[in-house]
Please model this.
Amino acid sequence: MDWGTDLWDQNDVIDKHTQSGLDLVERYIKFVKERTEIEQSYAKQLRNLSKKYAKRGSKDEQDCRFSNHAALQEILNEMNDYAGQRELIAENMMTNICVELTKFLQDLKQDRKAHLSDAKKAQQNLESSFKLLESTKKRFAKEWGEADKATQQVEKIESDPNAIKIDVDKARQHAHARTHTAEECRSDYAAQLQKFNQEQKYFYYSEIPQIFNKLQDLDERRIRRLAEGYSQFSDLEKKVQPIISKCLDGISAAGAKVDEKQDSLLLVEQHKSGFERPGDLDFEDYTQGIKAAGSDSSLNLPKVRGKLWPFSRKHKTSSHAEKHLPPPAEDFSHLPPEQRKKMLQAKIDDVSKKLHMTLETSEALEKMKGVYEQNPDMGNPTILEPQISETAQNIGYLRGELAKYETWLSEAVGGDECVSAINNNHHLTEKPAEPSENQYNIYTEFDDDFEDCGRCTALYTFEGNSEGTISVTDGELLTIMEEDKGDGWMRVVRANGEEGFIPASYVKLVS
Model:
């Protein structure tokens, strides 16, 4: 069954039906656009929510040592990755459905307009042919009537006894001319009728069916492409469903990692004071009277004890008194023993880290100075002297600070227990040996700008269709050039040197 055969006389119906189909495609495009806007807004709100509740600051970082705090941070990170997948869904829907369907719709509109124009033109040609047939037919009828009148006039004159021969011949000649003209009109009418019938047959059995069948094919192509768009609406989300499931699994795993016993133990380790609990109070007998004593203190006064009540209320001090409170001691001697050791060790770790970074900076400056001395065209070595001098002063200061805090830590733990901690940091006081000439590269000082951030393996295949992205395949080893900065994307380099951005949730870091 086809439109050209069964709907040959339903031009208006076909016109309205095809227009309704195009309107449906436009409605679906608008629907998907609004869905992408919802996805983008949802992803943005999720990112803002994750950022709002993320831990920031030194105190928050310390809290993250507890498993229940760290679990929430992992959940926020997974939620941020989840938001990235919602953004990817929106982007793919906009590209694969909205943009592609819009182009397809424009082509359909042009084709439909051309087909309807051809049908209208064919209809106009047939109507013009029919008007010409009617005109020829009327002329034939008129001329035949005139010829019939002329024949009747001849008969009337011939039957008149008073008619002369000249009038009879003249009437006969006129009747013959009219009849001849009527015969010519009859031939023209017959020829035009035959032509019209042929054109009408071609119109109804060939031309219009072909046009209507083209419109049928156009509408079926529209329906088939729209059905693909319907499926894409679901398939595009299914493609990222494994990653979304991983994010949700990560959230579940974060909850499973929470260890209440370990958190309690960690709190104890962080805050136990190291003091012994108070013993029994001695009975002080005042009935014995005043003892003779040669000392200034002759009364048995009660002993002053340390802290007895762990839940005693903190008394507020006046603002004037607060201003005159002594500042905390630099060696943390104002803290309980255990807390003092922890603070000193943390201070040693911080100074050691700064010293290590400063030593690396000094080494880089010395290398750069050597390069400039060997290659004056690359730079003037004298301009590095202030930086080298300042770095040397910082190294001396940091070594002094490190030795100071190590001494205090040794006093706090009794000397022997901190030997391992001191030995771990001792290598920082030694400056690394300079590389030999055959190992030295004059461009070493510039390598830090291009140093990769690690390696990763692609978990899924990603088609980089948009500008700035690259395509990667499942299992491919990549080099990280720029980590995720919170937008869900990271810059990587493939083995062939191709560089670009991919979704951060599509990869797994390689240790």
